[in-house]
C-alpha cells in the first residue's frame, strides 16, 4: 500500500534546542543584528564584507551543533510516511538528522554562488571573503535568500503542499511571507498539526491540532497522534 504523504514546514524553532538562535525570540538573532545591515539585497550592495562576516559566523555555529531529537524524529517518520520537509532553515540539521527529502526555501549555509551566473553554485565549509571569485569571475556570495529577493522554490513548495495527506508545522512564527502562506495550499480537510513553544495565531486552518511545547517534547507527542493516519 502507498505510504501517506506527510508534508512538514519547519522554522528556526526546530533547531533552537541544538543551540542555534531563532530570529524573533527574546534572544533571537534579530535582537543582536539589524536585518537591514546583514540580510537584505541592499545590505549586500552597501557593505558586502559585513554580510559575509555575518554568514561566516553563522556557518561556524552550524558546524559546531548537532541535530536534536526533533530532527531525528522527523527522519524516523520516513518509515511510515512519504515525508517531504519544506524548511525555512539554512542549516543542514534535517539532513544530518537523517531526513532524505528536504527543500530549503531560504537557501543553504554550506552553499555559495556567483553574483553573475547564479546557477554557478558551490559547496563552502569555511569562510567566504571579499575577492573570492567564481569561475565566471563573479564575487562569491552565500546561497541564501535575502529579504528583498524572490524565493525561487516557492512554486515547487506550494505544489508539494497541495499533495499533502497530513500537514505538520514545527517551530516557525509564520510571519515571513511567502513561506508562511504555504500552509494555505494544504488540502482544506486534511489533519494538520503545529508544534511550537509559543503557538502562533492561525485562524485560516481547519482541522488543526496545536501542541504548545518545545520541538523535542512536542514531537514525542506528535508521533503517537500522526501514526494513526499511516
Ligand atoms: N521548540 C519549538 N518552537 C520553538 C522553540 C523550541 N525550542 N524555540 C523557539 N520556538 C518557536 C518560537 O516560538 C517561534 O514561533 O520558533 C519560532 C521561531 O520563529 P522565528 O524566529 O520568527 O523563525 P522563523 O519562523 O523560522 O523565521 C522565518 O525569517 O528571518 C527570516 O529567513 C529567516 O527563515 C527565516 C524566516
Q: What labels describe this entry?
A:
single chain, 230 residues, alpha/beta, 3-stranded antiparallel sheet, 8 helices, 20% strand, binds adenosine-5-diphosphoribose
SSE order and pairing:
Layout: E1 4-10, H1 29-32, H2 35-38, H3 41-46, H4 48-63, H5 69-76, E2 81-87, H6 93-96, E3 102-104, E4 107-114, E5 121-123, E6 140-144, H7 154-162, E7 166-170, E8 192-195, E9 208-211, H8 215-227
Parallel strand pairs: 1-2, 1-7, 2-3, 7-8, 8-9
Antiparallel strand pairs: 4-5, 4-6
The structure holds adenosine-5-diphosphoribose.
Adenosine-5-diphosphoribose (APR) is lined by residues 11-13, 16-17, 22-25, 28, 88, 106, 171-173, 175-176, 196-198, 200, 214-215.
Q: How would you characterize the overall build of this protein?
A:
- The protein has 230 residues and is α/β, with parallel strands linked by helices.
- The chain is built from 8 helices and 9 strands.
- The strands form 2 sheets. Strands 3-2-1-7-8-9 form a 6-stranded parallel β-sheet, with helices on both faces. A 3-stranded antiparallel β-sheet has the order 5-4-6, covered by helices on one side.
- Helix 6 links the parallel strand 2 and strand 3.
- Helix 5 packs parallel to helix 8.
- The protein is globular, with a radius of gyration of 18 Å.
- The chain starts with a strand and ends with a helix.
- The model has no long low-confidence stretch (mean pLDDT 96).
- It binds adenosine-5-diphosphoribose.
- The site of adenosine-5-diphosphoribose has 23 residues, from loops.
- Adenosine-5-diphosphoribose (APR) binds next to loops.
Amino acid at each position: 500500500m502507498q505510504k501517506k504523504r506527510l508534508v512538514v514546514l519547519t522554522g528556526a524553532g526546530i533547531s533552537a534546542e541544538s543551540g542555534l538562535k531563532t530570529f524573533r525570540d527574546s534572544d533571537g538573532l534579530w535582537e543582536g543584528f539589524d536585518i537591514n545591515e546583514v540580510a537584505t539585497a541592499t545590505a549586500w550592495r552597501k557593505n558586502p564584507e559585513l554580510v559575509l562576516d555575518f554568514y561566516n559566523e553563522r556557518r561556524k555555529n552550524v558546524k559546531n551543533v548537532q541535530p536534536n531529537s526533533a530532527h531525528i524524529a522527523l527522519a524516523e517518520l520516513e518509515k511510515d510516511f512519504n515525508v517531504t520537509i519544506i524548511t525555512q532553515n539554512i542549516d543542514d540539521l534535517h539532513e544530518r538528522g537523517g531526513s532524505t527529502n528536504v527543500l530549503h526555501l531560504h537557501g543553504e549555509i554550506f552553499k555559495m554562488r556567483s553574483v553573475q551566473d547564479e546557477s554557478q553554485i558551490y559547496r563552502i565549509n569555511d569562510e567566504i571573503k571579499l575577492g573570492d571569485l567564481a569561475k565566471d569571475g563573479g564575487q562569491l556570495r552565500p546561497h541564501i535568500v535575502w529579504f528583498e529577493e524572490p524565493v525561487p522554490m516557492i512554486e515547487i513548495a506550494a505544489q508539494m503542499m497541495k499533495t499533502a495527506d497530513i500537514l505538520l508545522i514545527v517551530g516557525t512564527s509564520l510571519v515571513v511571507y511567502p513561506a508562511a502562506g504555504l500552509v494555505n495550499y494544504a488540502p482544506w480537510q486534511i489533519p494538520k498539526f503545529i508544534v511550537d513553544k509559543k503557538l502562533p495565531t492561525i485562524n485560516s486552518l481547519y482541522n488543526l491540532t496545536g501542541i504548545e511545547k518545545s520541538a523535542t517534547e512536542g514531537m514525542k507527542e506528535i508521533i503517537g497522534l500522526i501514526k494513526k493516519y499511516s
